[in-house]
């Protein structure tokens, strides 16, 4: 196997024996093949569009789900991935028959192997199949951006949000990744175009979320526990949460959020559920201890899943793109509904969660809430009470080096405000009391999930307008972003598309950036890494 798509890749080079995430070589092989056949399908759909023929939403959704399934910590179930490869091949065969011309299609478009061929084929279609280091780097940078974009699209799709132009781009980009005639310059342009569609994808999801659940608002989320048995829900899928809350009404079962589901509490629509009682625990990587102590069933709606311990494995349920052998998977019915009865019945027989902590988190500072406070914010900037905003969005992870972010937050001067989104927040969100506020504005403003980084970009654009600036980089905003998996890649490409420069990325730069590609990013966008808290505060804050 060879995989270097996430920040924790072995030795900062690549996982070759087994994934640091727990992905086994036989799963990695099927993920490589799933990406390959998805590219093949995309070459066919792109040709169909060129011939003026329609591609169904069903096919678009198949492509996005395939990409999502291969994101870090989403799916460890080889059989589930094999089933997706088979379905993709069968859909592709049907679509091939609708083409007027198959001339010039890439090999992947025609490949239609039997499951007994899958392992042999997978060996030749992974990351290392591209020999040129820079072309490989750009191809993977684009692929990972597309995976992140697909995840956000999938969440929008289940809420009825559709944008065919994004699907057409994703599929055309995937098919272009098969084209050996593309130069490094072509691929660099495609990378930037991916960022453009990343903005569109996050806007689509933002609209779908707020259209159904309202605009996030200032909210206090409890961190303690109640006496009832309960279900813990993790991941990013708000529709799954809505269905779970509906189905638990009147059952005596409470619902808590974990990890990236925390920001669901900020949406007005979810506040009407009396059994939606709080957030339990921290970011994804602490789940082994926290799921154990939760005592009840856990629903993983998206990554990040850590291979579960036997002691609580029978309580872990997966749905959507997530899968793990031996964990029950809740499938959607044809109309998209899901039946969570097995979790509810299990919860009734489980003890209530063990308390981990008490207290609260204050969040809900997505763009509309910040715009509502705009006068106060602008005044604080004008008076000098706020010297700088520090965007610390992104992902959390288990590496010790990430303690840097806690120390960085603590060491920031008192006239700075942290803007955060994503699970990166868990490194400092519980220090809110210690970090204090500036004239009533908390020094840590949480916009929401990682996709709500888009909301932070909207806040920056609004400030640019209010202050009458020509360039978003003239604002008193610095970016110190923590990354882990591929959704952070699309967030980064989206920020580059919006013209944001001088982003610091850590705790390490992606292993998939070749020295030449990294050089292009440094020279054109001022992308840099991190060093140590003291020096970085000096460089970023002055
Ligand atoms: Fe955190 Fe994991 Fe949000 Fe990532 S829970 S690293 O999926 O997308 O962020
Ligand atoms: Fe390694 Fe990350 Fe790939 Fe897992 S997702 S195999 S940890 S690079």
Automatic annotation (TrEMBL):
Ligand binding ([4Fe-4S] cluster): 3, 6, 15, 21
GO BP terms: response to hydrogen peroxide
Record text on cofactor binding: Binds 1 [4Fe-4S] cluster.
Keywords: 4Fe-4S, Cytoplasm, Iron, Iron-sulfur, Metal-binding, Oxidoreductase
One Pfam family here: Prismane
Family note: Belongs to the HCP family.
Protein name in the entry: Hydroxylamine reductase
Species in which this protein is naturally found: Selenomonas montiformis
């Amino acid at each position: 196997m060879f995989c270097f798509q996430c920040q924790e890749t072995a030795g900062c080079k690549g996982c070759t024996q087994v994934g640091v995430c727990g992905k086994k070589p036989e799963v990695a092989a099927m993920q490589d093949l799933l990406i390959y056949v998805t590219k093949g399908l995309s070459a066919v759909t792109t040709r169909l569009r060129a011939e003026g023929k329609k591609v169904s939403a069903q096919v678009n959704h198949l492509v996005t789900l395939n990409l999502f399934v291969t994101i870090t910590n989403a799916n460890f179930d080889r059989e589930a991935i094999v089933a997706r490869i088979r379905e993709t091949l069968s859909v592709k065969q049907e679509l091939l028959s609708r083409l007027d011309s198959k001339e010039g299609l890439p090999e992947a478009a025609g490949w239609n192997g039997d499951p007994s061929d899958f392992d042999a084929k997978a060996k030749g279609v992974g990351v290392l199949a591209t020999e040129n280091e820079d072309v490989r780097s750009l191809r993977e940078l684009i692929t990972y951006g597309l995976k992140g974009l697909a995840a956000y699209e999938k969440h929008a799709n289940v809420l009825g949000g559709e944008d065919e132009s994004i699907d057409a781009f994703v599929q055309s980009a995937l098919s272009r990744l098969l084209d050996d005639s593309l130069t490094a310059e072509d691929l660099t342009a495609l990378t930037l175009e991916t960022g453009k569609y990343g903005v569109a994808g996050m806007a689509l999801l933002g609209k779908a979320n707020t259209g159904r659940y309202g605009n996030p608002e200032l909210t206090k989320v409890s961190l303690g526990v109640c006496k009832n048995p309960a279900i813990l829900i993790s991941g990013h899928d708000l529709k799954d949460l809505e269905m779970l809350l509906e189905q638990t009404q009147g059952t005596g079962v409470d619902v808590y959020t974990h990890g990236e589901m925390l920001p669901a509490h900020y949406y007005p629509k979810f506040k009407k559920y009396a059994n939606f009682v709080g957030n339990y625990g921290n970011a994804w990587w602490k789940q082994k201890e926290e799921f154990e102590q939760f005592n009840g069933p856990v629903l993983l709606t998206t990554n990040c899943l850590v291979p579960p311990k036997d002691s609580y494995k029978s309580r872990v349920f997966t749905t959507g793109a997530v899968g793990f052998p031996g964990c029950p998977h809740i499938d959607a019915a044809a109309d998209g509904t899901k039946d969570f009865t097995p979790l509810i019945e299990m919860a009734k027989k489980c003890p209530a969660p063990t308390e981990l902590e008490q207290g609260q988190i204050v969040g809900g500072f997505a763009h509309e809430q910040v715009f509502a406070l705009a006068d106060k914010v602008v005044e604080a900037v004008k008076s000098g009470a706020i010297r700088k905003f520090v965007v610390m969005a992104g992902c959390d992870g288990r590496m010790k080096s990430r303690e840097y972010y806690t120390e960085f937050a603590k060491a920031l001067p008192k006239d700075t405000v942290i803007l955060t989104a994503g699970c990166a927040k868990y490194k400092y969100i519980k220090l809110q009391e210690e970090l204090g506020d500036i004239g009533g504005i908390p020094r840590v403003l949480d916009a929401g999930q990682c996709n709500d980084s888009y909301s932070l970009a909207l806040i920056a654009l609004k400030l640019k307008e209010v202050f009458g600036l020509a360039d978003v980089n003239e604002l008193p905003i610095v970016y110190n972003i923590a990354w882990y998996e591929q959704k952070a890649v699309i967030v980064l490409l989206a920020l580059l598309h919006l013209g944001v420069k001088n982003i610091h990325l850590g705790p390490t730069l992606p292993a998939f950036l070749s020295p030449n590609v990294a050089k292009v990013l440094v020279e054109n966008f001022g992308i840099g890494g991190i060093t140590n808290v003291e020096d970085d505060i000096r460089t970023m804050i002055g």
